[in-house]
Amino acid sequence: MTSPYEPGAAPPPSCPGHSAPPPEAAAPPPGCPAHAAAPQQAAPAQQDGTAPVRLYGPEFAADPGRVYAYLRQFGALAPVEIAPGVTAMLVTDYRAALDLLNDDATWSKDSRPWMQTVPADSPVMPMLGWRPNIFFSDGPAHVRYRDVVVDSFKLVEPHELRSRVHHAADTLIQRFGARGEADLIGDYARLIPLLMFNTLFGLPDSYSDRLIAAIAGMLEGNSPEEAAAANEAYTQYIMELVGAKKAQRGPDLTSWMMDHPNDLSDEELIHNIILVMGAGNEPLANLIGNALSRMLSDDRYYNTLSGGALTVQDAINEVLWNDPPLTNYSAHFPVRDVFFHGTWLRAGQLVMVSYAAANSQFDTTATTGPGSGSGSHLSWAAGPHACPVKRHALLIATTAIERLTAWLSDIELAVTPDALQWRNGAFHRALVALPARFTPITPDQAGATPWHNSDSGPSSSTRPEPTSTGRTPASAH
To answer: In a 10 Å sphere around its CB, with 0-12 CB exposed, 13-18 middle and 19+ buried, how is residue 73 labelled?
Structure first.
């Protein structure tokens, strides 16, 4: 990599801390806001006056890939706006992303200095505001928090987790099976993680509707008021959870985190549970929904879901490469002014990684190389801050999809694939709905059904233990 400046030299006065603008011949995608007026409190404009490109709004939600292709013309990093008035530099290059994610000497996760430059009521603050947890800590503090999470999840046996997914899936399928139609997002994909994590952390399913509303509000952030309300509701949920476990321990993640020898304070415990809950619910729901969408839209998987050339694991791998459930995140802040992959960055400036843009540099249909299914996509991030519980997430997603398609073997989309709509937001890739139809099933029909004991069902290897997932989640009404 060549530099127009000597290493360590200060950028010229005209350089605003960004790379050069893309070539004039490069045409932005239709509706691309790259040439819109600069937003209030935006980062310095490009030398040609081009404003940061918005990562929100209907145009971005409909075709983020085209926006990423345009951003890549800026170089390894590009100026973006993640919410009105909130800008960042987005890493779109695979190698640059790995260099950032693996270099904790140059980059900090502490967002507190950056927070002083952004309105406190910004809708992105719930996702980027500092907390004493894994995401926003460095060095020994990060290792201490991470050990608590990793060690606690190690106590969740895979066979028990799979059994709980079977039971939760059967509970949900019972609710819509007789209708012959369902929204696989609202009726299934978004509820499976809630039933799982709400129970694993030790609360009954009556709390799940509060959890889904809070997490969705934090990710979507349609207005400062909605984001603040969602953040408050989420914090209240966690406070009640911790209070219940302080009164009576149980065989659950909250109790195990409380009793870990690293001895988290109440504040640290609450904020790490907030982190794990948020990271474990919404992105996992998006992974399940996006994989189901791909399977139902692509004949390489199934003419019917009872047979086909490609598997659930193939669908999940393709989603992690092409439609990551969390598309842009890994917020980092340079500890000093730095010239990084052709771009000058200020100390404390917000820099995020686009997993989707970095992944899309590779041909995922190739038989060799990074896109060949080797697992080297960046959807779990990388380096010291990589997802600590990805095996649990993969087991839940795979089992949930297999359970659904085993019971509803002729399920198909109720609309054409191009009619599906994607939710607005800079951080996630998530469908609004996934309408599907299938042959209705009832508890009195011949053969095994979700109403029977699950060890009589298709592909079931374990009997579900009695858990709170047997109760009806309020959000399923």
So the answer is: middle
**Residue 43 contacts residue 52 (beta carbons within 8 Å):** yes
Alpha carbon separation from 328 to 38, 39, 68, 75, 462 (Å, rounded): 22, 20, 11, 17, 37
Tokens matching residue 304: 């019917």
Question: Please, are residues 130 and 113 in contact by the beta-carbon 8 Å criterion?
Answer: no
* pTM exceeding 0.85: no
Q: What is the largest CA-CA distance in the chain?
A: 78
Tokens at residue 223, please? 């207005």
Instruction: Spell out the residues 6+ positions from residue 262 whose beta carbon is closer than 8 angstroms to its own.
Output: 144, 145, 147, 148
Q: Which of 361, 341, 430, 364 is nearest to 69 (CA)?
A: 361
Distance, in Å, from the CA atom of 186 to the CA atom of 184, rounded to the nearest integer, reads 6
Whole-Å CA distances, 458 to 104, 191, 377, 447: 47, 21, 32, 11
pLDDT in tens, the chain (477 residues): 433 333 333 443 334 344 444 444 344 443 343 333 333 333 333 334 468 999 999 999 999 999 999 999 999 999 999 999 999 999 999 999 999 999 999 999 999 999 999 998 888 988 899 999 999 999 999 999 999 999 999 999 999 999 989 989 999 999 999 999 999 999 999 989 888 888 899 988 778 778 777 777 765 656 778 878 887 888 888 889 999 999 999 999 999 999 999 999 999 999 899 888 878 888 999 999 999 999 999 888 865 445 557 889 999 999 999 999 999 999 999 999 999 999 999 999 999 999 999 998 875 554 444 444 445 899 999 999 999 999 999 999 999 999 999 999 899 999 999 999 999 989 999 999 999 999 999 988 877 889 885 544 444 333 333 333 332 323 333
Going across the sheet that includes 435-437, the strands are 181-183, 435-437, 412-413
